[in-house]
Amino acid sequence: MTLVADKSILLVEDEALLAMFEKNQLEQGGYLVTHVTNGENAIQLVIREEKPFDLILMDIDLGRGLDGTQTATEILNHREIPVVFLSSHTERDIVKKTETITSYGYVVKNSGFTVLDASIKMAFKLFEANELTKSKKEHLETVLHSIGDGVIATDSDGKIIRMNPIAEKLTGWTHDDAVGLEINRVFRIVNVKTRALVENPVDKVLRTNSIVGLANHTVLLSKDGSEYQISDSGSPIKDLNGDTRGVVLVFRDITAEYNVQSHIAKQANMLNNVLDAVIGTDFNHRINYWNKAAEKIYLWKAEEVMGKSVLDVLHTDYLSLTADHVIEKVNLEGSFIGEVVQFAKDGNIRNIEINQVLLNDESDLPIGYIAVGRDISERLNAMNHIRESEAKLTQIIESAMDAIISIDQSKKIILFNGAAEKMFGYQASEIIGQPLDGLVPLGFRNQHESHIDSFSKTGVSRRAMGALGEIRGLRSNGEEFPIEASISQISVKGEKLFTVILRDVSVRNLSESKIQKLLHEKENILKEIHHRVKNNMSSIFTLLTLQARAQSESNVQTILYEAAGRIKSMIVLYDKLYHSETDNSVSLQDYFPAIFTEIVNIFPKVVEVKMDILEEPIELNAKLLSSLGIILNELITNSMKHAFGEITNAEIGLRIFREGKKIFLEYSDNGVGIPESISFDHSPGFGLQLIGMLVDQIEGKISIVRNPMSKFLLELSV
User: Fold this and answer.
1) How far apart are CA 201 and CA 183, in angstroms?
2) Angle of CA points 195, 377, 219, to nearest 5°
3) In terms of Cα–Cα distance, which of 262, 154, 130 is closest to 203?
4) What is the pLDDT of residues 268-310, one digit of tens each?
């Protein structure tokens, strides 16, 4: 049973306040919790420092740097540890993205501690179960790898789920490449004599639900071209209910044994194993020789045709000649070569390339005929497929929405599709053979021609046109229009052909203009939003200030002034965003003097303000400035509450300077000083704790200088 007190959790959360709340809940639940604000720090602790965490609670959105899914992927590449994702997102695509990384849990933020605690405990149980399953699996893998025969396991659909190393070697497929494929793609077996495909044992087992053996003379065709004579069997894999859930195929290589037997047969059948059909007849056309290839092509066995007339067995169409004319030609000239159509035993047509010769005896007297036939049906089918492919390509070109134009080396048009006809207003019949210049405005022709010549010399197969400027086309009615184009080149029999694919972008250019207008409207709307937010927050500030002034108790008054100061820092930020030229950033020089003065003026005590801010303009994003504004408010409030007492010449200062790629904010006062017992780690008040968390959130560093004057030094990378 999992004990909560034994478990340590790494919380990865960039929002300081939320992290503080979650950490407190988890610790009250009995967990040991370590918090970091970004993915880089999490990787540092888990991988580089090898901290022994039992589980990671990972926020998906982590601000700058790695997000939660990237951080989890990096950690899981180095260490097995359960990861539970935390997010405010409930979109299905975001949840599915985390499931591809780990499956230990996904918790929506603010679901409550009960849900979070249950998810964590379930993740621990799943992790323990997975570790146990992994151990058992490793044991079975060791047994499987030690077997000397090839072993392949499939599911009930005949798809591969496991292969051992011997099976990998014999099939030529790696385990990873083969898993999920149909067994017939990987375990390809044929009859060694007929080369016909043999029914796969897996298919037979699934059909009969029984153990089957491989047929004799079975050859396994390896992926790398090797062949292995194999034997053995396939057996069903059954579950506890006796239902077949798959098949295990066990086979071994008996090639060496088979080669000894087949060598003798090859010696005897060498002359009978040519690929072409060889038919011998006497002078009266009676068949006296019929080889194996003839059996395969015409489907007649030798014993079925011996002694019969070849004219009766094979019905031959000589296409341009009659059978009598062919025989006469052979008798007079000694041979006939040509293409014929012959019918096999099953009535199907065979396209045959035939060489028919007159066979003479030693006395040069004719004793018969030899006909050597080669089945060219597949070759003719391939040629027909090529013609069909050419027809399909033509249809594709004609149906393309973009204009497609091809030109030869002399820049004359040789292809002009339907879209080109619509674009330019010419029919293909009137433009084919014409120079390409007719489609280019006069002012662009020299540039266009030199571009094609230059492209021809590069040897590059494809390139986008228009990189050096606008490209325009010329319609048949004289109208010029903007186009987007790419050009490609091929070489056919030493001659270069160029193809240009064109798209009329007139409508797109108009759309882009409308988009720019909408973007401008969006900027105005965003500024209005900033203005309205500022006004609403000003109302809140006014209410807090009035309420503070109405209080008789100084503690309550101070709390209200602190809250008003935090609101004031945001008011100033939104005011600057409203007047900013950019969408979401404000100049450091604009923001800090304004917020410094505004916050000081909230408090009734008179304090002299001194500021020294670098002149170099620096733009910072609104999120960073918001955190810096709250930090500055807390520092000013702290001074007003604790630093001055009865001091009449109270003074606070802000100095901002830069060193390299770092910005430093130095805040000081001339008050009573900061006790040695007070630090960011040990503070009785909320203010310094909040400053510490916000500094971590923006990835900065802050330190306290006590002598000779109290100072806070904040270091920030930009």
Assistant:
1) 10
2) 10
3) 154
4) 355 467 788 899 998 888 998 898 888 888 999 988 989 999 8
Please check whether residue 382 is in contact with residue 351, taking contact to mean a CB–CB distance below 8 angstroms: no
Q: 247-280 as b/e, with b when 16 or more CB fall inside 10 Å?
A: bbbbbebebeebeeebeeeeeeeeeeeeebbbbb
* Strands 403-407 and 366-375, bridge-based pairing: unpaired
Q: Is 433 left (phi over 0), alpha (psi -120 to 50) or beta?
A: left
Q: Which residue has the tokens 């052909």?
A: 497
3 state SS of 477: coil
Is the model's pTM score more than 0.70? no
Residue 412 three-state SS: strand
Backbone angles phi, psi at 374, to 5 degrees: -120, 125
Q: Is 294 exposed, middle or buried (0-12, 13-18, 19+ CB in 10 A)?
A: buried
Helix or strand (DSSP H, E) at 581: none
Q: Identify residue 663 by its one-letter amino acid code.
A: I
Collapsing DSSP to helix, strand or coil, 550 comes out as coil
User: pLDDT tens digits, residue range 421-439?
Assistant: 888 889 988 888 888 888 8
| Residue type at position 570 | M
Coil, helix or strand for 315? coil
Angle at 687 between CA 683 and CA 692, to 5 degrees: 75
**372 with 355: CB under 8 angstroms?**
yes
Distance CA 607, CA 394 (A): 85
From CA 107, how far away is CA 573, in angstroms rounded?
33
Task: Please give the order of strands across the beta sheet that includes 710-717.
Answer: 608-613, 651-659, 662-669, 710-717, 701-705
* Cα–Cα distance measured from residue 119 to residue 22, given in angstroms and rounded to the nearest whole number: 14
Take residue 231 and report the two structure tokens written for it. 């034997």
Q: Do 160 and 173 contact (CB within 8 A), yes or no?
A: no
CA angle 357, 358, 360 (to 5 degrees): 135
3-state DSSP call for residue 92?
helix
State pLDDT tens for residues 225-258: 898 888 777 888 887 787 888 888 888 888 776 6
Distance of alpha carbon 512 from its chain centroid, rounded?
30
Cα torsion 507, 510, 511, 513 to 10°: value is: 160
DSSP one-letter code for 658: E
Provide the residue count of the chain.
Answer: 718
Pairwise CA distance, residues 666 & 656, whole Å: 6
By the 8 A CB rule, do 692 and 650 touch?
Answer: no
Report whether 363 contacts 277 (CB < 8 A): no
Q: Which helix (H) or strand (E) holds 269?
A: helix 255-269
Distance of CA 210 to the CA centre of its chain: 43
| Phi/psi at 139 (5° precision) | -65, -45
- Token couple for 440: 């280019």
Least confident of 343-347, 618-622, 702-706: 618-622
Burial class (CB in 10 A: 0-12, 13-18, 19+), 341: middle
Question: Tokens standing for 249?
Answer: 């195929």
Answer yes or no: are the C-beta atoms of 667 and 653 closer than 8 Å. Answer: yes
List Cβ neighbours of 159 (8 Å cut-off, separation of 6 or more).
Answer: 180, 181, 182, 183
pLDDT tens per residue, range 251-264: 888 877 666 555 54
Token code pair at residue 522: 């969006």
CA distance 595 to 593: 6
Residue 98's CB: how many other CB atoms inside 10 A? 22
Check: CB of residue 195 under 8 Å from CB of residue 227: no
